[in-house]
Amino acid sequence: MHQAHQRFVAAAPGVRLWTDQRGPADAPPLLLVMGAQASGLGWPEPFVDALAVQHRVIRYDHRDTGRSTWSFDEQPYRITDLASDIVRVLDGLGVERAHLVGLSLGGMLTQLVLADHPDRVLSATLMGTNALSTTPYTRPDGVRVPVADLPGIAPEVLEMWARPVEDHGLEAELDRRVEHWRVLSGGQLPFDPGHYRALERRIIEHTGRYDVSTAPARADHSGMLRTEALAANRIPTLVVNAPAEPVFPPPHPHHLAQAVGHAHLVEIPGMGHALPPAVQGPLAEAILAHTAKAG
After folding, report:
1. What distance in Å separates the CA atoms of residue 42 and residue 159, rounded to the nearest whole number?
2. Domains of the chain: which residue ranges?
3. What whole-number distance in Å separates Cα of residue 103 and Cα of residue 42?
4. What is the pTM of this model?
């Protein structure tokens, strides 16, 4: 186990972000960027430990998650502000450039930083996300497919997201979260409810509350396209192809690898929109190979 230390950094007036660091202080920094409504503790401990062998690994809580400031109702922000928060975390921790690893919304935020602040990025890894680009997808047979015609979110996921989240107590909320992970996992690998229940119990203990903020859904999503800047990208970028992905199913990863310059694809067998133990080792290996090459 590596030494971990926690501190808060300022993101905006009255807004502080919780951060956690692990691994050698002089190793190349690697910042993990979680998805919407997700605390930095959503990155599983064994996965963080595996990356921390080679990196100073930084996790953080987005606004309105975990121990960061919950402020959307008093101080609404745009999704693009959450990308600026990445730069503020780096600034607050004295990091000039970092390897960025983004999952889901975190993959979109990572693309925004790639496009707007490439001088802060050593490499990027994108997973469970879609391209912030209007570039059509070119199929293997050469046919060009407009972005609007790429497959959408699986109906089972949409149905789960449409359900109102009601307060029936802590254990019922854990049940709901475990079921959410089951749907997100995509069904190709065995599903272990106990793994996700323990993960979410830790997140709730860390947060000090078990309600979920709806801020990411309510925040202004405009101004996120970066078609030209991503096409011109020179930062080495790894795109993870998760074959069981139900939110941005294939060929979204293939499209992402086409839309972003200097990008290459790696497939993690059985992976969906989650990080179960079975994918953590192969995923960490792929990321470490990528950062070593980029470094």
Report:
1. 22
2. 4-294
3. 10
4. 0.97
Q: Which CATH number fits domain 4-294: 1.10.155.10, 3.10.129.10, 3.40.50.300, 3.40.50.1820?
A: 3.40.50.1820
What pLDDT tens digit does each residue of the chain (295 aa) get? Answer: 344 699 999 999 999 999 999 999 999 999 999 999 999 999 999 999 999 999 999 999 999 999 999 999 999 999 999 999 999 999 999 999 999 999 999 999 999 999 999 999 999 999 999 999 999 999 999 999 999 999 999 999 999 999 989 999 999 999 999 999 999 999 999 999 999 999 999 999 999 999 999 898 899 999 999 999 999 999 999 999 999 999 999 999 999 999 999 999 999 999 999 999 999 999 999 999 999 999 8
Nearest to 253 by CA among 262, 261, 242: 242
d(CA 130, CA 254): 10
- Containing 113, the helix (H) or strand (E) segment is helix 105-116
Task: Could you list the beta-strand ranges (E) of the chain.
Answer: 4-12, 15-22, 29-33, 56-60, 98-103, 121-127, 137-138, 144-145, 237-241, 263-267
Rounded Cα–Cα distance for residues 235 and 69 (Å): 31
